[in-house]
UniProtKB/TrEMBL annotation:
Name this polypeptide is given: ABC-2 type transport system ATP-binding protein
UniProt keyword ATP-binding present: yes
Keyword NADP applies: no
InterPro entries listed in its UniProt record: AAA+_ATPase, ABC_transporter-like_ATP-bd, ABC_transporter-like_CS, ABC_transporter_ATP-binding, DrrA1/2-like_C, P-loop_NTPase
Organism: Nocardioides albus
Highest taxon, organism lineage: Bacteria
GO cellular component: plasma membrane
Annotated PANTHER family: ABC TRANSPORTER ATP-BINDING PROTEIN (PTHR42711), ABC TRANSPORTER ATP-BINDING PROTEIN NATA (PTHR42711:SF5)
Family recorded in the similarity comment: Belongs to the ABC transporter superfamily.
Lineage of producing organism: Bacteria, Bacillati, Actinomycetota, Actinomycetes, Propionibacteriales
Keywords: Antibiotic resistance, ATP-binding, Nucleotide-binding, Transport
Length: 293
């Protein structure tokens, strides 16, 4: 398991990452979400040691991470960092050799991955001749060879079309299944919800929520939707509720005081017919808006 604990980083007076702690369990995908400037990239840079932390620790398999451990991590940095003018196979092989692989093994594994991503015919092309989405695939391959002990990926899905997203997601799941802890940042909440075992939500440098999708949903505010035979305007006067929306016979409310939804239902049945009354399970994007507000 990879774990960060109390990580803090300032730039001048500004605290970009403030006492951030979360685990990245082995064998799972952890999604790292947050708005622009929330502190995700800075946190990932500290995990990889390319930026020093002002406080806090990064641990790997229960000990303080070492430079040798980090050399075994696959990292896709925000600034990417491949050379635009070099043929893609040559530079991928070069990078894999820097990380201790033989040229023959590197060439073989990289060729398989390039073919899997539909780039088998482009191995001699310089990176800059590829479309942005294909350049992104090459950047991802750079993080995957040699087989990484952990994966730290900054926005690996940005710029990919739906087919490439699926291919990439399959690849990450395969690594996770092999026991590799995988953490990646993304702005695509639905994708993160679909793919990840755990989520870490950051806002203004701090972790504001974390857990499985189910845990985050369970922690979210309790909401109910009510559909009546007549007008639902009276719902505004029921104590212990925040009315999120009322429109004709329909209302959606948030429960502020325990049991207020039962009083609402009793009042509704005493006034006339109740056509529907059910708990609303919020989407991740709604939870995200709540916790980062
Ligand atoms: N080298 C730096 N010097 C000064 N400020 C920085 C530096 N790097 C990051 N910051 C600031 O730290 C804060 C966090 O930035 P960071 O890039 O970590 O956020 P992020 O969550 O990755 O955002 P995005 O989703 O936009 O990439 C921002 O206010 C940013 O301007």
């Amino acid at each position: 398991m990879l774990e960060v604990s109390g990580l803090t980083r300032r730039f001048g007076d500004m605290v970009a990452v403030d006492d951030v702690s979360f685990p990245v369990p082995s064998g799972g995908l952890t999604g790292f979400v947050g708005g622009n400037g929330a502190g995700k990239t800075t946190t990932m840079r500290m995990i990889m040691g390319v930026l020093a932390a002002h406080a806090g620790t990064v641990s790997w398999q229960g000990h303080a991470v070492t430079r040798a451990d980090r050399r075994r991590f696959g990292y896709m940095p925000e600034e990417r960092g491949l050379y635009p003018k070099q043929p893609i196979l040559d530079q991928l092989v070069y990078l894999a050799r820097l990380r201790g692989m033989s040229a023959a093994d590197a060439r073989r594994e990289i060729t398989v991955l390039l073919e899997r991503f539909g780039l088998g015919g482009r191995t001699k092309d310089p990176l800059e001749k590829l479309s942005l989405g294909n350049q992104q695939r090459v950047q991802i391959i750079a993080a995957l060879v040699p087989a990484p002990a952990a994966l730290v990926l900054d926005e690996p899905f940005s710029g990919l079309d739906p087919d490439a997203i699926d291919a990439m997601a399959d690849l990450l799941r395969e690594h996770a299944r092999d026991g590799v802890p995988v953490v990646f940042s993304s702005h695509q909440l639905d994708l993160v919800d679909r793919l990840c075992d755990r989520l870490v939500v950051m806002a203004r440098g701090r972790v504001v929520a974390q857990g499985t999708g189910e845990e985050l949903r369970a922690d979210a505010s309790l909401r109910y939707r009510l559909v009546l035979g007549g007008d639902a305007g009276w719902v505004r006067d029921v104590p212990g509720l925040h009315v999120r929306d009322v429109s004709g016979p329909e209302a959606e409310v948030e429960v502020l005081a325990e049991g207020a939804e039962q009083k609402l239902l009793a009042e509704a049945t005493s006034r006339g017919s109740v056509l529907d009354f059910h708990r609303v399970v919020p989407r991740l994007s709604e939870i995200y808006r709540e916790v980062t507000a």
